[in-house]
Design goal:
307 residues, alpha/beta, Metallo-beta-lactamase, Chain A, seven-stranded mixed sheet, 14 strands, globular, binds zinc ion
Length: 307
């Protein structure tokens, strides 16, 4: 892996899927986490593995109260107090706070409201509403040095707002939860199938494809396919859907990767204007069937998570 430049904005999805979600957004020195649904030990170990072991975590942004997004909050809170000598804030909506299991609740909770931007340790954060079956779920757009990153998972359908936010992004982490055919033919009970495919459930490959087709713009450089179902999806199908979406959007040169439940993705990075270096060779996609660049062992292109 190349050295991370001091001012680069780096993003690493440390885990994604129904057994735990967490994405780091920041610089190599400091950043925020979006969600903390895997164990504290794993969060810190995976940051170490991808070269972010020294990065200070300034805050945690919580999308909603499901355990795969907030389960580690209380323990992470205490662990970071020891690590950083300061209790960091956990940001969540009032509806999410009401829904969080009290045993997972961190000490310092800051309230956010969807549609109201705020500054968190120098990062501009916009929480925005998504349809999901929880109290008041949000997605996040995080900006630093004019680089925009969105994390959009756990939504039953896309909206114009979700598309508009995607169009502003350099890096996007988007849910490709299930293949509808696999879901309907799969092992879930009927009621769960209905929940997953419902308007407040999870985004199918076809829905995510349509979102990418409508929302991806020329500034998009990295696309992460997230929250794939272990039972009801295949990375190849998600990648094909993403490629179709990008083609429909007329956007090329995007690096597409599938986030994993078990292993962190090596950091994506976008140079900020002061340090931007033009690519010396054409960027290429790392889709499953294409030749992929040499990657360290921490990166993998397949995913084994449940819905
Ligand atoms: Zn989830
Ligand atoms: Zn959820």
């Amino acid at each position: 892996m190349d050295l991370l430049f001091h001012h680069d904005v780096v993003v690493s999805t440390l885990a994604s899927g129904s057994r735990g979600n967490c994405t780091y957004i920041g610089t190599p020195q400091r950043g925020v986490l979006v969600d903390c649904g895997l164990s504290t030990k794993q969060v810190l170990r995976r940051m170490e593995e991808v070269g972010l072991g020294k990065a200070r975590i300034e805050a945690v942004l919580i999308t909603h109260e499901h355990a795969d997004h907030v389960g580690a909050a209380r323990i992470l809170d205490d662990r970071l107090l020891k690590r950083q000598n300061e209790r960091i804030p956990f940001f969540m909506t009032a509806g999410t706070k009401r829904g969080v299991n009290p045993r997972c609740m961190p000490k310092r909770v800051e309230r956010i409201t969807s549609g109201q931007a705020l500054s968190v340790a120098g990062f501009d954060v916009e929480p925005y509403r998504v349809p999901h079956d929880t109290g008041d779920p949000v997605a996040f757009l995080v900006s630093h040095q004019r680089v925009n990153v969105c994390v959009v998972t756990d939504l039953g359908r896309s909206t114009r707002l979700v598309e508009r936010q995607l169009s502003r992004c350099d890096i996007a982490v988007i849910e490709f939860n299930h293949d509808l055919e696999m879901l309907l033919d799969g092992p879930y009970p009927w009621s769960l199938k209905q929940r997953v495919r419902g308007g407040h459930g999870h985004l199918s490959n076809a829905q995510a494809e349509a979102l990418v087709a409508a929302g991806a713009s020329d500034r998009l450089r990295h696309l992460v396919l997230a929250h794939l179902s272990e039972d009801n999806n295949l990375p190849e199908r998600a990648l094909e859907a993403a490629e179709r979406g990008l083609n429909q959007a007329g956007v090329s040169g995007v690096e597409v990767r599938v986030a994993s439940q078990q292993l962190p993705l090596t950091p994506m990075r976008v140079g900020t204007p002061a340090t931007f270096r033009p690519a010396t060779k054409p960027r290429r996609r790392t889709a499953s069937t294409r030749s992929r660049p040499a990657t360290p062992p921490t990166q993998q292109l397949s995913l084994f998570s449940a819905g």
